[in-house]
Amino acid sequence: MENQHFNTEITFNATPQQVFQAVNQVRRWWSENITGDTDRLHGEFTYRYQDVHHCRIRITEWVPNEKVVWHVVDNYFNFTGDPREWTGTNIIFELSEKDGKTHLRFTHQGLVPSYECFQVCHDAWTHYIQGSLAALIRTGQGSPTPKAAEATLSEALSANPAPAEHATTSIWHRLLIETPVETIYNALTTQEGLAGWWTPTTHAEPVVGSTSTFTFTDYVKEMKVEELIPYSRVKWRCITGFADWIGTTITFTLEPRSNGSLLFLRHEGWEAYTPDFASCTYDWGMFLRSLKFLCETGKGLPYPHQYE
Q: How far is CA 279 from CA 238, 246, 284, in A?
């Protein structure tokens, strides 16, 4: 069959020199957890994302303002049958200039559909190249995985347990969403994302300590953003809403999988198994379904359409 290696292309109103420089500033668009040399021929660097993915990369070709090739010397995934997928593949950035614009062609040579990780890597690379790298070139600000994103799933799920002397009730949900954690995290933190799956009348910003407002026709919920660990965990505390909600916390935890991501929702602090608790358990299921649709298809079912 014709070339099945993953590739994506994008054109910029920028010079080849500007694009080439941005490509090699890997910590500004891929991950701040990268160590080593990313901007010279024969340089080596290591990428690490929690205990989920780490790899060692060597720069094997370096043509200023034209081409960079990374060779994956070794690789580890904790979510594939063969943890060494990627090992021996090449990641290629090719630049060409036409009519005052620079065209970037990105190819991950060897990342093919037969790989178990193909779909999640396809979506993740699209996020980082079409989203983060493009933003770095156009605005000077990418969205790499920050160093703070180091909590493991077990740590996230065991964080802040209720004191034994004041046991409370919790709502739990577990859901597979067939997109990478980056896509889901954006849907859980940005105003556009939250409006796309929970309620269109949303005012929010991804800042710890800020208050997000969610309006549902005749009542309002306000959530204080207590924790943001990019691509891993989001935690809110309800400060305005139904009486049973006030003081409760909602935590979203993400874990990468070869076919997408696992989302864990934990709504803690309920005083008892009330009718509102039962109703809320069902409603969270419907809204998580909406979140899944938004991430996988680009269109959710926010209030008041969540039951459709």
A: 17, 16, 9
159 burial (CB, 10 Å; 0-12 / 13-18 / 19+) is middle
Instruction: Take residue 206 and report the two structure tokens written for it.
Output: 């991804």
With a threshold of 0.70, does the pTM exceed it? yes
What band does 150 get if pLDDT is binned at 50, 70 and 90?
Answer: low
Query: What distance in Å separates the CA atoms of residue 135 and residue 29, rounded to the nearest whole number?
Result: 8
Judge if 6-139 and 164-297 fold alike in CATH terms: yes
Neighbours of 275 (CB within 10 A): 8
Q: For the domain 6-139, what is the CATH superfamily, name and number?
A: START domain (3.30.530.20)
Given a cut of 60, whether residue 171 has pLDDT beyond it is yes
The residue among 305, 307, 303, 308 whose CA lies nearest residue 198 is 303
- Domains of the chain by residue range: 6-139, 164-297
213-220: list long-range contacts, CB under 8 Å, 24+ apart: 216/303, 216/304, 217/304
CATH architecture of 164-297: 2-Layer Sandwich (3.30)
Residue 135's CB: how many other CB atoms inside 10 A? 16
Cα distances (Å, whole numbers) of residue 299 to 72, 195, 197, 265, 290: 36, 11, 8, 21, 8
